[in-house]
Specification:
alpha/beta
């Protein structure tokens, strides 16, 4: 599920690369694989790619300075459920009772029409579902650690989770890694700089930007 929904740059106007409708980039990974670090690097260091997060919906209340239509679209649980019934979501998740997050088909199309290349930072099953929906219009990337043991080392190094929570994350990661072959490309993050460059090259080819390869 994507709940990192800040946009970068000016949402108006066509991208420098391939003027017209934006394209779709799906990135999934087990927790601790470095996916978010790679995505943030791409957005910061390569603004010419015109990458924008998809703006998700949530049924929770805004926090702090969050604004409707910027960080999220804020809906009531009743409104969210109505959109589920109307098949308006590409994917959605009920984190716990009446706390929903989801990606609206219409919002993705709106961002594409504005020339944005839309990034989905989603869980594995969400990524597979979006790829099935869009087919060749979307590029799906799976970022994975070199091994479960390396992932354990990274999670323990963060010192933010209990041993029980780490064990749960590792079990989930092992399960998620079985879905990796369903993605267009698997990027093994055994070296962060190498993984960044490999991701950039794959995306640049997809967006027809040979000057970045």
């Amino acid at each position: 599920m994507n709940n990192k929904t800040t946009t970068s740059g000016n949402p108006q106007g066509a991208p420098l690369l391939g003027r017209g409708r934006g394209r779709l980039l799906i990135l999934s990974a087990p927790s601790g694989s470095g996916k978010s670090t790679i995505v943030q690097w791409l957005m910061k260091e390569h603004p010419e790619l015109k990458l924008y997060f998809s703006i998700s919906c949530t049924s929770r209340a805004p926090r702090g300075t969050e604004q409707n239509g910027v960080e999220y679209f804020f809906l009531t649980p009743k409104e969210f459920k109505a959109k589920i019934q109307n098949d308006e979501f590409l994917e959605y998740e009920e984190v716990y009772q009446d706390r929903f997050y989801g990606t609206l088909k219409q919002q993705v199309e709106r961002q594409r029409e504005a020339g944005q290349n839309v990034v989905f930072d989603v869980d594995v099953k969400g990524g597979i579902n979006i790829k099935k929906f869009y087919g060749e219009e979307a590029l799906s990337l799976f970022i994975q650690p070199p091994s479960v043991e390396e992932l354990r080392r990274r999670l323990e190094g963060r010192a933010t989770d209990t041993p029980e929570a780490i064990a749960e994350r590792l079990a989930k990661a092992e399960y998620e890694m079985t879905f990796a072959p369903q993605f267009d490309h698997i990027i093994v993050n055994d070296n962060l700089e190498k993984a960044k460059q490999e991701t950039l090259e794959i995306i640049a080819r997809f967006l027809n930007a040979p000057e970045l390869i």
